[in-house]
Amino acid sequence: MKELINNLEELNRKAEKGGGDARIEKQHSVGKLTARERIDLLLEKGSFIELDKLVTHRCTDFGMEKQKFAGDGVVTGYGMIGKRLVYVFAP
């Protein structure tokens, strides 16, 4: 059971990196924030609940089978702004 939990935690860490460190650095190098960074700024601290973090596409056209990222490249979920519940997504 411990091995399964460790595997799930590793999948979550990998998903939170999106396309990986190189893609994060590319965003930062042109003055942009990542999707998760933008959501963190928008919502109240600690209120974001991410949905479908580990989902991946099943497309095999155009070489897409070589480009699979957890969350399928979109961060979705919900959190709080003020005292209101809001749903958000960011590519």
Helix content: 25-40%
Mean pLDDT: 86
- The value of Rg in angstroms is 15 Å
Helix/strand class? alpha+beta
Q: Main beta sheet, described?
A: 3 strands, antiparallel
Order of helices and strands: HHHEEE
Describe this structure in words.
With 91 residues, this protein is of the alpha+beta class. It has helices at residues 2-16, 21-29, 35-42, and strands spanning 49-51, 75-81, 84-90. It has a three-stranded antiparallel beta sheet. It is globular, with a radius of gyration of 15 Å. The mean pLDDT is 86.
Summarize the structure.
This protein has 91 residues and is of the alpha+beta class. It contains 3 helices and 3 strands. The mean pLDDT is 86.
Describe the secondary-structure layout.
Blueprint: H1 2-16, H2 21-29, H3 35-42, E1 49-51, E2 75-81, E3 84-90
Antiparallel strand pairs: 1-2, 2-3
Can you give keywords for this protein?
91 residues; alpha+beta; three-stranded antiparallel sheet
